[in-house]
Amino acid sequence: MRIVVCLIGLMLTTSALSQTVDPKKIEPTCKKNWPAELQQWCIDWLKNAAETKDWKIIDAEDVAVSPRKYDGQKVKLLGLQCYYADVDDFRCVTSTPAVIFAQKVEPVPARLWLQDNCHQIRTALSSDKCRMSVRFVLDVEDIKEDIVSGYKKRVILQPPMIEAIPTRPKG
Predict the structure, then answer these.
(1) Which three-class secondary structure state does DSSP give residue 20?
(2) Do residues 45 and 56 lie in contact, with contact meaning Cβ atoms separated by under 8 Å?
(3) What are phi and psi for residue 74, nearest 5 degrees?
(4) Which of 39, 44, 65, 66 maximizes the CB count within 10 A of its CB?
(5) Does 68 share its domain with 132?
(6) What is d(CA 17, CA 15) in angstroms, rounded to the nearest whole number?
(7) What average pLDDT values come out for the chain (171 residues) when binned by 10 residues?
(8) Signal peptide: which range, if any (predicted)?
(9) Quick one: 32 and 69 in the same domain?
(10) Nearest alpha-carbon partner for 81 in 99, 59, 68
């Protein structure tokens, strides 16, 4: 619970960042009784927060309807439920027919977090601790479609790597 609260603070802190980030202000923000790997994740992420403006925030519904229009773009999807499905198999689901299957999650603390805390379907699909925003470059070659339950279309995005970022809980 404490880590989730700290991650919420991290999300709120980054929303106020400008183009230039003062490292002297970052370090104290990220060192409030956090585990070492989370502190480094926080520091690295805040230093790179200015890059966020280069990522196109898109809705999962848009991806489900017409994923090819984002070909070659840096995209960010918000509030996905992500989990560790198997070795080299991380999945993020939405309330739409769009799903993400990735072999690799970066940064390492995000991957370890999913492996340790989001490895059971019941927990992963209902817990705020498994809610992530993900960023990746969408390539048309990584888009697949299939039919689930005999009639539901599903759009599968299979980027080789996703960057997972904790998301503030609902409510």
Answers:
(1) coil
(2) no
(3) -80, 115
(4) 39
(5) yes
(6) 6
(7) 39 38 50 66 62 80 89 92 93 91 93 92 88 92 88 90 79 50
(8) 1-18
(9) no
(10) 99
What is the 8-class DSSP label of residue 131?
Answer: E
Q: Which two tokens stand for residue 12?
A: 């709120």
Q: Which tokens go with 93?
A: 């689901």
Query: What's the distance, Cα to Cα, between the start and end of the chain in Å?
Result: 16
Alpha carbon distances (Å) from 65 to 13, 62, 97: 33, 5, 9
Tokens coding 131 = 């809610």
In a domain, residue 59? The reply is yes
Nearest to 106 by CA among 162, 24, 159: 162
Report whether the peptide linkage leading into residue 159 is cis, meaning its omega lies within 30 degrees of zero.
Answer: no
Per DSSP, the chain holds a count of helices (H) and strands (E) of 6, 9
DSSP, residue by residue, 77-136: EEEEEEEEEETTEEEEE-SSSEEEEESEEESHHHHHHHHHHS-SHHHHHH-GGGEEEEEE
State the amino acid at position 149 in one-letter form: S
Token duo for residue 1: 């619970």
Residues 85 and 128 in one domain: yes
* Rounded-to-integer distance, Cα 27 and Cα 11, Å: 15
What range defines the domain where residue 85 resides? 55-166
State the amino acid at position 38 in one-letter form.
L
Question: Token digits for 166?
Answer: 């904790």
CA-wise closest residue to 67 among 164, 157, 160? 157
- Amino acid at position 88, single letter: D
